Structures are given as structure tokens and as C-alpha cells.
Amino acid sequence: MSVTMKTRCVDKRGSFFKLIDTIASEIGELKQEMVQTDLTVEDEAPDWQSLIKNMGNVSPEKNDVKSCPRDSGYDSLSNKLSILDKLLHTHPVWLQLGLNDAEAMEILQTQPPGIFLVRKSARLQKKVISLRLSSDCGSCLKEFAIKESTYTFSLEGSGISFADLFRLIAFYCISRDVLPFTLKLPHAIAAAKTEAELEEIAQLGLNVVLEKAMHKCILKPLKGHIEAMLKEFHTTDGSWKQLKENLQLVRQRNPQELGVFVPTPDFVDVEKIKVKFMTMQKMYSPEKKVMLLLRVCKLIYTVMENNSGRLYGADDFLPVLTYVLAQCDMLELDTEIEYMMELLDPSLLHGEGGYYLTSAYGALSLIKNFQEEQAAQLLSSEARDTLRQWHKRRTTNRTIPSVDDFQNYLRVAFQEVTSGCTGKTLLVRPYITTEDVCQLCAEKFKVANPEEYRLFLFVDDTWQQLTEDTYPQKIKAELHSRPQPQVFHFVYKRLNSDPYGAILQNSNDSAA
């Protein structure tokens, strides 16, 4: 009988996800129709020239910008917006893939040197940076082709690669490399000091307007119905009852019993996080929900690192996230995670947002399957299979990277004569040097004499010791961008160890 019930549950789950896929497909078709309709109705076509020309009119100094209500959790975050933040929030303004040559020229010829647009060139059949040049350069506009590979973006003629387009543009806003000068953000974007200001600016653009209109027209009225269906589904199959009981069980455990051996958010921080989750529940846009989840996860990382002065990897983060979700004690987070996983645009599953969404799903799975005698550290094979199926189903005809491929993560193998070769996924940001990575490896692998160990690159059957001032993430991006894929490994090992030891026997565990 239990087998029959399980089969029915699986069938029901399959039917439910088919319904979600149908809804997502219809939303995609509607969005496409909206785009086509907008392009065919001449009297509603946007005034591209005024799009950037009028940017000065929404300068934060000149406008009464209505700031969104902010919860107290923002107090713990930096108020300074980075160039990358500004680019992420305002991409509808500068990312205009549908513009042709004449439209780009019309917009940029009235702008000061350095102002740019990213669009797709019909002639080159690839993305380009259309850059406004100075008057003494002859032509007022020049295009710089963007080279894309499975994992990286770079400008043609440059040896510097980036994990995504946003980081590429951010870099060229501060360093010219192969450009005649650095890129320049429109004044309103450069002067913006809050995310609310950036969102207002972003609304001028046509397009971890059409999009907002689609969400408002379709998802907003459907949100309550979808949530009710999810609640009914989980109540019927008993999973919410199990989750409620296990939340109570996990909350009674101290962090160490859950496999947490790093600093955790205190009561005040947990309350801030809970406020963010409650705000998330009110949103109907999956993109905005993911942005809030991203802030929560970054807040947790900040607490972990600031209270210890150390850098932590992904294997430390998951138990802490599990502990925090249990302390929040919100059953509704289960449906929130499903809502985002099923309705988020697959292209947004790349990068930190997608990684943290997967982490949140994994943390809830640990709680659901928590047993009295176990620590919440390892995902069950069932949960891992579900995640793999979700990746495959949500990214049909697309490529989604594993955790090793994300910009801020690096897989490092640890080779020791006595224990063979093991590996860990470490949080390594692009500006972290090899010297810093070696210090992190010494802590993670509990090496007593770190002066005897160094970081090596194993590629093409050769070993290269990385100097202390090199950047492992840059090396990884460069290797991924090569025309012919190569198997390579970052290995932390003794200086005098056998270079052809365990690494060749355990290559699948240490691939970067």
C-alpha cells in the first residue's frame, strides 16, 4: 500500500510540475507577443534618442525619488553601491540587444565620449559595445566585439575573461585595456545612491518595463492561486506536517549538533532575516524574491566572516543556512523556494542567485529529512537527484554551470601522501590572490605546517606552481575560454610531494 501511495504522490508531483511548466511556457509566449506587438505598433515605439538624453532629468539630486520602505536588516549592509550593482539594476537602459546600427548612432551621437550601449550587431552576429568616441577620433562611434564561450565573456583582442557580461562591463568602467578610454555611465546612474533610484532609472528601458508589465499582468493575479495550490499540495502529501515537526526538532539543537562550527547570526540578525523573508512573501516577481534571498545569504556570509576574520567556503555555508532557516520557523519558505525555482527565467539561474536558490532548497531538504541522530550536513541522494532533475527540466537546450563554474567559487584538491586526494569548494572572489587561497586551504584542510604547501595547477599532464601574486579565478576563466576544452585541477600540496600521485587516480573529485 505504501508503494501505491508513493506512486500516487510522484504522479501528483509530476502533474503539478507539468502545470507549472505550462504556466511558465504561456508566460514566455505572452512576453514574446508583447515584444512583437510593441515593435509593430509605430505610434507606441520608444523614443530611443530621448532614452539616454533624458537621463539627466531623473538625476537623484533633481527629483523627489520615492524610496521603498526598508526593513531594519538594511542597516547591517553597506550603503555604497558598487559599479556592478548599478549595472545590474539598470541593464534595461544600456543593454539594448534589439538596436540596429542607425538607432545606436542616433542615440550615441548626442552623448559625451565614453557613453555606451551593448547590442547585437547584425553584421557581426555577436554582441558588441557601441562606444561614443571623442570628436578628434574621426568617427563618433566604434564597435568592440564581445567574445562569448560557455563559461566566459571577453573583448576580442583582450586576454582578460569574465564570468558574465555585467562583470565585463564593470571592469571596463574602471580600466580601458583594449578600449581607447574607460566606459562612462550616464550621470543619473553614476550619481544614484540607493537601489530605489536605480530601479526608477531602469524603468526607462523597454525590456540572483515589458518584464515588469508581464509580471504585473500575469503573475500578480496568479500569485495567490499558485500559493494556494502549493499549500494544498504539501498539506495533502504530508510534507508540511513533517517539515513543521522537524523545524521544531532542529530549533532545539545547538549549532554544533547541526554540523555548524563557524559564527552564526544572533537573535537580532535572525529577526532581520525573518523580516526580509516576510517581505519576500508579499512579492509576486520571482526576480525580486531572488534578490532578497541573495541579500539574506550575503548577510549570513558577512556575519560568518566578520565574527571570525576568516573566509569560508560553500561546505561551511550550507549548515549555517540550515540553522538560520530553522530559527526563522516559517513553513511558507518551502513554497517560496518552489515558486522561485519554477518561475524564474532560466537565464537568471546562472551566478550567485541560482547558487543561493539551490542552497536554500538544499537547506530545507536537510530539515525535511532531519533525523534525531544525524547532523544536518549532507544532502540525501533523493534530494540530490531532485536537484539534478530540476536543473535538467528548467534548462532544456541551455547550459547551467555546476557550483565549480560560478565566478566566486573554486574547487581545490588537497593531495597528501597519507590520505590520498580530497577536494573542497572554496569561496574565492576574482581579486583573491594565490597567497590568500593558500591561507584559506591551510585552514580548510587543517594543515599544521602551511609553509610546506603551495597551490599548483595541473593541466596538460604538467604541474605549475602558482606564484603568490597570481589570481586563480582569472586563470580558471582563461582556461575555460580556450577553444579546445582542457581538463585542469587546482591542487594544494606539499612542495616536495610526488607530482604524479593521487591526483591522477581521483581526477573526478578535483576538477575545477
CATH-derived topology of the largest domain? Glutathione S-transferase Yfyf (Class Pi), Chain A, domain 2
Can you count the beta strands? 9
Beta content: 5-15%
Whole-number tally of structural domains: 3
Oligomer: single chain
CATH superfamily of the largest domain: VPS9 domain
Which structural class best describes the helix and strand composition?
alpha+beta
CATH-derived architecture of the largest domain = Up-down Bundle
For this structure, what is the CATH class of the largest domain?
Answer: Mainly Alpha
Topology pattern, helix = H, strand = E: HHHHHEEEEHHHHHHHHHHHEEHEEHEH
Roughly what percent helix?
40-55%
Strand order of the largest sheet: 6-5-9-7-8
Overall body shape: globular
Count of alpha/pi helices: 19
Give a short account of the largest sheet: 5 strands, mixed
Mean pLDDT: 74
Low-pLDDT residue spans: 1-17, 33-78, 397-406, 500-512
**Rg from alpha-carbon coordinates:** 25 Å
Distance linking N and C termini: 46 Å
